[in-house]
C-alpha cells in the first residue's frame, strides 16, 4: 500500500501528447523538474552498503493454503507471519511456463490485461513520478490518459530527452474504474469466502503497474494484505521482490520527525544481484547514511527476522498488518527489452470474533 501522503499531492501539467504517443512531453517534464527522479537511486559510489541477512518467506502449509477458515484463525493470531502461495502453473526451477499454460494461440495474462485496460484508455489516471518519499512536499504526480501510459510502458520507457524515469501507476483502484476488470479479477480463493460470509471487511483493492526498478520504499500498512502479481510482460524476466521486517523492529524503523509519511521509514534499503550460483537471488543492503548505528546493528543481526522473496506472475504473498515491507520490480535475467509487472493488493481486516 502506498504510504499516507495524499493530502500533499501536487498536480503538474496534464500529460497528453496526441502526436508523440507514449513519449513524455518536454513541457510536462519541465513542470516536474523538482519532482522527477531516475528509477535508480542517486548514490555516492563510495558509500558502503551493509548487507542484511534475510531468510526466504516460507510457502504456506497445505492445510492453511486450502482452508479459508484456517486462514481466518491464522490472521487472528498475534503470531501470524508472511507466507507465499505459489502459482501452480509456473515452474520456478527453469523459468518456463508449463505446457498447460503455453497452449498455442492462448492469450497471455499480460495481453489480456492490456486489452482490458485499453477499453478505458481515455480515462485519466494519476501516475507517480519518481520516489514519493524523495520529494520534499510528499511526491510528484501527473494526470495522464491511461492509453498514453500503457503506450509508454510497452515502449522504451524514456522521455523525449532519453532520460529513464520512474513512472508508477500505484494504488490505482482499477476494478472500480475499468468495469471489465471486475469480471476477470476475482478475490483470492482464501479471501473470497470470508468476504461472502462477512467475517472480514475489504478495505481496498489496488493495482500497482510499473516498469523494472520501480520501488515502493520501506513502509507498513494497518491492514492485512494478500498481494498478487497479476501479470508480467515476460514472466521469466520481470517479477517483484519483497523485503519484510517484523513489527518488533518498529522502534528502529519508524520516523521520529513527525512527517506526514508516518507509515514510511527513513531507513533506505537497496538490492543488488547475488553473484552466487543461485538463480534469481538478490542481496538486501542498508545505506548506513539513512540510519543511526543502533538501527544498523539491529538490522544486520541474523536474528532480526528479515524475510525476502521474489514474486512471479500468479504468485501471492500474505503480508500481516504492521509488517514493514519494501517492494521493487526486478529483472530475473539480463534482457535488453523494457518490461513491466502488474500487482494487485487486497487489503482487509477481520471482524471481531
Would you write up a description of this structure?
- The protein has 353 residues and is an alpha+beta fold.
- 18% of the residues lie in helices and 29% in strands.
- The chain is built from 10 helices and 18 strands.
- An 8-stranded antiparallel sheet has the order 3-16-11-18-9-8-6-7.
- The longest helix is centred in the N-terminal third of the chain and has 9 residues, at 109-117.
- Portion in strands: 25-35%
Distance between the termini: 26 Å
Radius of gyration: 20 Å
The secondary structure category is alpha+beta
Strand count, sense and barrel status of the largest sheet are: 8 strands, antiparallel
Task: Give the assembly state of these chains.
Answer: single chain
What's the arrangement of strands in the largest beta sheet? 3-16-11-18-9-8-6-7
Helix and strand sequence: HEEHHEEEHEEHEHHHEEEEHEEHEEEE
Shape: globular
* Average pLDDT reading: 81
What percentage of residues falls in helices of 4 or more residues? 10-25%
Write a brief caption for the model.
With 353 residues, the chain is α+β, with helices and mostly antiparallel strands.
Short key terms for the protein model shown above:
353 residues, alpha+beta, 8-stranded antiparallel β-sheet, 5-stranded mixed β-sheet, 10 helices, 29% strand
Topology (elements, then pairings):
Blueprint: H1 26-31, E1 50-52, E2 55-56, H2 62-65, H3 68-75, E3 83-85, E4 90-91, E5 96-97, H4 109-117, E6 124-129, E7 140-145, H5 146-153, E8 167-172, H6 174-177, H7 179-184, H8 192-196, E9 200-211, E10 215-219, E11 224-232, E12 238-245, H9 250-253, E13 269-273, E14 282-286, H10 293-300, E15 307-311, E16 316-319, E17 324-331, E18 340-350
Amino acid at each position: 500500500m502506498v504510504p499516507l501522503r495524499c493530502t500533499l499531492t501536487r498536480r503538474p501539467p496534464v500529460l497528453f501528447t496526441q502526436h508523440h504517443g507514449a513519449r513524455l512531453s518536454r513541457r510536462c517534464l519541465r513542470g516536474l523538474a523538482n519532482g522527477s527522479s531516475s528509477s535508480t537511486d542517486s548514490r555516492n559510489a563510495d558509500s558502503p552498503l551493509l548487507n542484511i541477512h534475510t531468510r526466504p518467506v516460507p510457502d504456506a502449509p497445505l492445510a492453511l493454503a486450502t482452508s479459508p477458515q484456517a486462514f481466518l484463525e491464522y490472521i487472528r493470531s498475534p503470531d501470524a507471519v508472511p507466507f507465499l502461495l505459489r502459482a501452480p502453473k509456473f515452474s520456478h526451477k527453469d523459468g518456463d511456463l508449463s505446457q498447460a499454460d503455453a497452449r498455442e494461440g492462448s492469450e497471455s495474462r499480460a495481453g489480456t490485461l492490456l486489452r482490458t485496460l485499453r477499453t478505458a484508455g481515455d480515462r485519466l489516471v494519476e501516475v507517480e513520478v519518481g520516489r514519493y518519499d524523495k520529494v520534499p512536499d510528499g511526491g510528484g504526480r501527473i494526470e495522464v490518459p491511461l492509453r498514453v501510459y500503457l503506450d509508454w510502458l510497452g515502449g522504451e520507457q524514456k522521455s523525449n530527452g532519453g532520460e529513464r524515469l520512474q513512472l508508477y501507476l500505484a494504488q490505482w483502484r482499477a476494478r472500480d474504474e475499468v468495469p471489465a476488470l471486475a469480471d476477470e479479477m476475482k478475490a483470492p480463493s482464501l479471501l473470497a469466502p470470508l468476504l461472502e460470509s462477512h467475517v472480514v471487511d475489504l478495505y481496498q483493492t489496488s493495482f500497482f503497474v510499473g516498469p523494472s526498478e520501480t520501488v515502493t520504499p520501506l513502509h507498513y500498512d494497518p491492514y492485512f494484505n494478500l498481494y498478487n502479481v497479476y501479470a508480467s510482460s515476460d514472466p521469466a524476466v520481470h517479477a517483484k521482490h519483497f523485503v519484510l521486517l517484523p513489527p518488533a523492529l518498529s522502534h528502529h524503523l519508524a520516523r521520529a520527525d513527525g512527517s506526514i509519511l508516518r507509515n514510511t521509514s527513513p531507513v533506505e534499503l537497496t538490492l543488488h544481484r547475488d553473484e552466487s550460483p543461485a538463480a534469481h537471488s538478490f542481496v538486501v543492503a542498508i545505506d548506513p547514511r539513512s540510519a543511526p548505528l543502533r538501527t544498523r546493528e539491529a538490522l544486520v543481526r541474523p536474528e532480526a527476522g528479515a524475510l525476502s522473496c521474489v514474486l512471479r506472475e500468479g504468485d501471492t504473498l500474505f503480508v500481516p498488518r504492521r509488517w514493514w515491507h519494501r517492494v521493487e520490480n526486478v529483472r530475473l535475467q539480463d534482457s535488453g527489452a523494457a518490461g513491466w509487472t502488474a500487482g494487485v493488493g487486497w487489503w482487509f481486516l477481520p471482524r471481531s470474533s
